[in-house]
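Notebook entry, structure prediction.
Reason for the run: the old model in the group folder had no record of what sequence produced it. Starting over properly, with the input documented here first.
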Amino acid sequence: MRKFNHFGIPTQTVQADENYAEGLKVYLTDFSKSENKIEFLRFEEGSCMPDIIQKVAHIAYEVPDMKVALTGKNVIVEPMEGGPGLQIAFIVEEGIPIELMCFDTNVQRPQSAY
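New structure, fully documented this time:
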């Protein structure tokens, strides 16, 4: 079962308190500090993330088992570390990117996923 976590919006506008994810070449805001759980993503040229993630808003859901959640899905970003005790992946459903987040229950959950 999926549980809503946040809503990601690509932007070209510099946001206050952005954090930089060097490996993905993207600036991110902390959705845990947003009243509406919004994460702004500002990608640099040459980011390895698929165009659809760079250009189309995404919904992020927490899932209890990443392998089960990805079974039979259109996976566009394979599972990767998204922070301490967090695995993320992206699929496409209904024409938009969906981020799947799986937290390791043995690791203390961070305030923010990034």
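Summary: The beta strands are 3-10, 19-21, 26-28, 38-43, 58-62, 74-83, 86-93, 96-103.
The old model has been moved to the deprecated folder.
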